[in-house]
From TrEMBL, chain A:
Keywords: Phosphoprotein. PANTHER family: RESPONSE REGULATORY DOMAIN-CONTAINING PROTEIN, STRESS RESPONSE REGULATOR PROTEIN 1. This is Response regulatory domain-containing protein. Residues 5-119 form the Response regulatory domain.
TrEMBL record, chain B:
The chain crosses the membrane at residues 27-47, 54-75. It comes from Candidatus Lloydbacteria bacterium RIFOXYC12_FULL_46_25. It holds the Pfam family HATPase_c. It catalyses: ATP + protein L-histidine = ADP + protein N-phospho-L-histidine. Gene3D superfamilies: 1.10.287.130, Histidine kinase-like ATPase, C-terminal domain (3.30.565.10). InterPro entries: HATPase_C_sf, HATPase_dom, His_kinase_dom, HisK_dim/P_sf, Sig_transdc_His_kin-like_C. SMART domains: HATPase_c (SM00387). Coiled coil: none annotated. This is histidine kinase. Its EC number is 2.7.13.3. SUPFAM superfamilies: ATPase domain of HSP90 chaperone/DNA topoisomerase II/histidine kinase, Homodimeric domain of signal transducing histidine kinase.
Length: 124, 321
């Protein structure tokens, strides 16, 4: 089976590297972006199978990026992975059809991998 | 007597208002009174001296213009005071907003760092096998402390939002027993570590309520973690009950630990309060304050009863209509 492509959009370099390393260990092809603008560029050029998207980022935040790609007709599954935990952001993300909204600090990294695999119908 | 002296101490009043003396209404009012009295006396003597109507009319006109000028100065002085207060209020508002922004950025960075530590510790877990008991204990302590940091950062943000009036509430219909069961799963590890058993009592597992699930989760986590922390250290038991009462849903969290002493009961929901005995038990101090504020935001009430047998915290929320 073709390895699945994951785009991580995360401004915290340490978290980005941790996620990328763990996902690569699970045989995913990983693309990295540090803000929404880079994220949109990767979506256009690399057609990822799933996007892990932070919210609070410089230049372009995750919710604006999500709104932009949906407005352009892109239907790539998106999992919000953020420490922003307020009802408005969750409702906004749901409106743009995110697959899941995960609060980073509540989740262990291997549970995030399981969630991604579940979303992509990959058996663990 | 002292209040009378205080009342006529015009300079003291002006100092309190923190405005220049010529912008101080009381001082301007005093000057106005002196000038009006002087004008009336002058008008009296002039009128006695000159009886021609033109002169009297001219004098009255001048006096009126003079009084209007004085009134203008007085009104201007009041406006200055009001304007200075508005500027001060705006400045205070700006400072508070800056403080909120700072807290948001600082806490966001704190939460990111704590997340990195959490994920890093998780990847190190397989290596625990080769460690000594002491090293394993240190590992568990680091993990617990880090979880406290995560909880603390989330609660600081919540308090900031509660106090700035920016706390959003998005009510949606939820199955309350399913939601509560899922929240309970989040504290299973903590319960195991404290050797506490959690019993669930749900007479009606199809109960629907309309509420904000994010805030409800925070309330129940506070109550559950509190119950685990304070339950009987030898045989800890926590009971989670969801029931109905009239047109309300009552969520109760009971534990079998020591009762809350009567003198401490009025302070349980205060923001920074913890009694000296409880201070020995680790945890953040404003959980109960957050639980109370969030419950009120959800249109509910929170209360507790405590006796030597058990302590029960109950949250009452309206049922979905």
């Amino acid at each position: 089976m073709e390895p699945k492509k994951i785009l991580i959009v995360e401004d915290d370099a340490v978290l980005l590297q941790m996620l990328a390393n763990v996902l690569r260990q699970h045989d995913f092809i990983v693309f990295e972006a540090q803000n929404g603008i880079e994220g949109i560029t990767h979506i256009k050029s690399d057609s990822p199978d799933l996007v892990l998207l932070d919210i609070d980022m410089p230049q372009m935040g995750g919710l604006f990026m999500l709104k932009t790609i949906r407005a352009n007709g892109d239907k790539t599954p998106v999992i919000m992975l953020t420490n922003v935990n307020n009802p408005n952001s969750i409702a906004d993300a749901a409106e743009f059809g995110v697959s899941a909204y995960l609060v980073k600090s509540d989740w262990e990294i291997d549970d995030i991998v399981k969630k991604i695999k579940g979303q992509l119908h990959i058996n663990s | 007597m002292s209040s009378l002296i205080e009342e006529i101490n015009i300079f003291g009043h002006c100092k309190k208002l923190e405005v220049p003396i010529w912008s101080c209404p009381r001082f301007v009012f005093l000057i106005m009174g002196v000038l009006i009295s002087f004008s009336i006396i002058t008008a009296y003597f002039v009128a006695r001296q000159y009886t021609e109507p033109e002169i009297v009319i001219g004098m009255v006109t001048l006096l009126t213009i003079f009084l209007m000028a004085i009134m203008y100065i007085l009104v201007n002085a009041f406006e200055r005071v009001v304007y200075s207060r508005q500027t001060e209020a705006q400045r205070t508002k700006d400072i508070l907003e800056l403080k909120d922004q700072f807290v948001h950025i600082a806490v966001h960075d704190l939460a990111s760092s704590a997340t990195a530590i959490k994920w890093g510790l998780k990847t190190l877990e397989p290596k625990l096998v080769g460690l000594s008991d002491l090293e394993k204990e240190m590992f568990v302590n680091i993990r617990e402390r880090n979880e406290q940091l995560i909880t603390l950062s989330r609660r600081i943000l919540l308090i900031t939002r509660i106090e700035s009036g920016h706390l959003e509430v998005t009510p949606l219909p939820i199955n309350i027993t399913e939601t509560i069961s899922a929240i309970k799963e989040e504290v299973v590890r903590a319960a195991d570590e404290h050797q506490v058993t959690i019993e669930q009592v749900y007479p009606n597992d199809a109960l629907m309520i309309s509420t904000d699930a994010v805030h409800l989760r925070e309330i129940i986590l506070v109550l559950l973690k509190n119950a685990i922390r304070y339950s009987n250290p030898d045989d800890g038991k926590v009971t989670l009950t969801v029931n109905t009462e009239n047109d309300h849903c009552v969520i109760s969290v009971a534990h079998n630990g020591a009762s809350i002493s009567p003198e401490h009961r009025p302070h349980i929901f205060e923001k920074y309060w913890r009694d000296s005995a409880e201070n020995k038990i680790e945890g953040t101090s404003f959980g109960m304050y957050i639980a109370k504020e969030l419950t009120l935001k959800l249109g509910g009430t929170i209360s507790f009863t405590s006796d030597p047998e058990q302590t029960i915290f109950s949250v009452t929320l309206p049922l979905a209509k």
